[in-house]
Write a structure and sequence with these properties.
Layout lengths: L9 E3 L2 E4 L2 E10 L2 E8 L9 H9 L11 H12 L7 E4 L6 H8 L3 E6 L2 H13 L6 E4 L11 E7 L8 H11 E11 L8 H7 L3 E10 L5 E10 L1
Helix pairs in contact: 2-3
Amino acid sequence: MPESHENPFEWTAGRPYFHGLPVLHREIKVANTPYRIAALKDAADLLDLPEFEERFIKKDIAPYGLELWPAAIMLAEYFAKGEQGEGRSALELGCGLGLVGVVASKSGWRVTVTDNDEDALRFARNTAALNDASIEEYTILDWNHPPADKRFARIFAADVLYQLVDHVPFLRCLDALLAEGGQALIADPNRGVADRFPQFATDNGFQISIIDTTATLEDGPEIKGRIFCLSR
């Protein structure tokens, strides 16, 4: 059954808005299966709203997870075509809209969805409800302070390597939360800043392989990317 949730949107003349910004309802095909999402067209517009200045600008937190990015499609396709979870535990870091978590749950993974922003979790709950997906848990998670009592067979994230300063804290978070014999899957749209990530991963005790992949958002151009597969 879908997760019960509070709808994060305001409705005006039958159209949804988020803090006055229009929300787009879209259908995205993942491995030829349609999924429904609701997203902002350009989440950066939130930075122009005074009520978000404290949260995003002064605390250096970006709102970009509230729109759909190609790396999320890449990782969702990987889960749709990959091995079934068979009830094993999985953790999504930096969930954004939560599409990947929804696809993983449909593939049999018992998914915990996390982000460092409550609004992203609200959008992710909405995505699960739109697709009749069952998510184990939604929770705020700071990579610098991972919980000490949890481990997951799979950890996954899409397009989280866009700041070099985040790479080592992210790897330490993976190290704290990845179960023995587990695997972490990180999708990246070939950002130059992520080119050094494999070396950081190796230096921090991980084995790493790279899968080349692509994604297409609706009628847009094909975006090339990669999935970093980490294990210990």
